[in-house]
Design brief:
It is a single chain. The two termini are about 30 Å apart. Helix 1 (about 15-25) runs parallel beside helix 2 (about 50-80) and helix 2 runs parallel beside helix 3 (about 100-120). The chain has a 3-stranded parallel beta sheet with strand order 1-2-3, with helices on both faces. It has a two-stranded parallel sheet with strand order 4-5. By secondary structure, the chain is α/β, with parallel strands linked by helices. It contains 4 helices and 5 strands, in the order αβαβαβββα.
Length: about 180
């Protein structure tokens, strides 16, 4: 682990309130929370099994919100903090075979906007980054991918730089 950075591996298909509470208890001095969980399944709505829908919504949305619910009081108590949500362009524009994925990403957009209003006076900066096709393992099990040319995808390093920039900004500067 890098200094000031703690990595947790969680199965967000299932809610684990006890683990979420432990994380919050062990990190009362949190300054930045990055919500970056997600995966995609792309097919028409009626082709999804019920379990596929539940798992996708749990990972991409529900359990990130529940985890944040336990972490947020620490930020509010400290009267400062940053919440960076990694959304998707799919959260801004729906597309064919993207019904469930886009739904979760649209919801993250609403979460970010609402949290921004709720947390502003508590000294907590909230922002969402909505990248397009990114060069990661996200596409490994999908039936489509970005092109190999650099203009066809975003490099994950560029997103990391944006996250780093936001993490290091003054608390009075809010990025929309």
């Amino acid at each position: 682990d890098e200094v000031g950075f703690t990595h947790y591996e969680l199965d967000l298909k299932k809610s684990d309130s006890n683990k979420f509470k432990d994380i919050a208890k062990n990190h009362k001095d949190l300054e930045t929370i990055i919500l970056n969980a997600g995966y995609g399944v792309f097919k028409e709505l009626e082709q999804f099994s019920d379990d596929e829908i539940v798992d996708l919504v749990n990972v991409n949305l529900v359990n990130q919100i529940i985890l944040l619910k336990y972490l947020l009081p620490n930020l509010k108590k400290n009267k400062k903090g940053k919440i960076i949500i990694i959304g998707s362009q799919s959260g801004l524009h729906g597309a064919k075979k993207s019904c469930i994925y886009s739904t979760t990403k649209f919801a993250l957009q609403g979460l970010a906007e609402s949290l921004k209003a709720e947390c502003n006076k508590a000294g907590i900066l909230v922002t969402i980054i909505n990248p397009g096709m990114t060069h990661t393992a996200f596409h490994d099990d999908l039936h489509f991918t970005h092109g190999d040319n650099p203009e066809n995808h975003i490099n994950v390093e560029d997103i990391s730089q944006i996250v780093s920039l936001i993490s290091n900004l003054d608390y009075n500067l809010n990025i929309d």
